[in-house]
Amino acid sequence: VEELRIARNVTTFQLFSSAIDLFEGDALLWYRSVREDIRDWNSLVIHLRQAFLPSDYDERLRQEIYNRLQGSSERPTLFVAAVRNLFRRLTIIPSESEQLNRIICNLRPKYSQGLLFQPPTTFTKLVSLLRTLEYAEIRNRRFEPRSGPEPLLEPDLACTQRSSRQRID
């Protein structure tokens, strides 16, 4: 609702005034019973969460965040985006440094190890470093020494592919 409010340039006052349009079923029944006790949009959101989210929602969501690991084919920047969105759903959002630490711990090792020598202090820096590491990973997968037909100036220094069975003297 908040994203649509911003996209449509609606104020929280306007949203609160027309909140009844957002509810149906049990939520509408609940809203009608509390609307005279609530004075603004932010209060409505707080009351709505208290009424409909499980009482241990934050605790369970924190555990979900703690257990959320980057998938084997999940791009690191999309993993960061997913976990950041999970953090935003908490009632009390941890500091940026706490979020960064958790995200880095839950990245695949090939990315988290690459951040050891230059730990990011902002999400912008984290995403930038991850894009660099991802690019390096792509280059590593594509890398093959050249052994083309072009004449070599120094053939004794060229890379030669040896079978693992060949003996090196």
Structural overview:
The protein is mainly α. It is built from 9 helices and no strands. The chain has helices spanning 2-7, 12-17, 25-34, 41-52, 57-67, 76-88, 96-106, 109-112, 123-142. It is elongated. The protein starts with a helix and ends in a 27-residue tail after the last helix. The model has no long low-confidence stretch (mean pLDDT 90).
Lay out the secondary structure.
Blueprint (H helix, E strand, L loop, with lengths): L1 H6 L4 H6 L7 H10 L6 H12 L4 H11 L8 H13 L7 H11 L2 H4 L10 H20 L27
In short:
This protein has helices spanning 2-7, 12-17, 25-34, 41-52, 57-67, 76-88, 96-106, 109-112, 123-142.
Describe the largest sheet: none
Helix/strand order? HHHHHHHHH
**Which structural class best describes the helix and strand composition?**
mainly alpha
What integer is the average pLDDT?
A: 90
Gap from first CA to last CA: 72 Å
Helix content, binned percent: 55-70%
Low-confidence stretches: none
**Beta fraction:** under 5%
Q: What's the gyration radius in Å?
A: 27 Å
**So what's the overall shape?**
elongated
The beta-strand count equals 0
| Tally of alpha and pi helices | 9
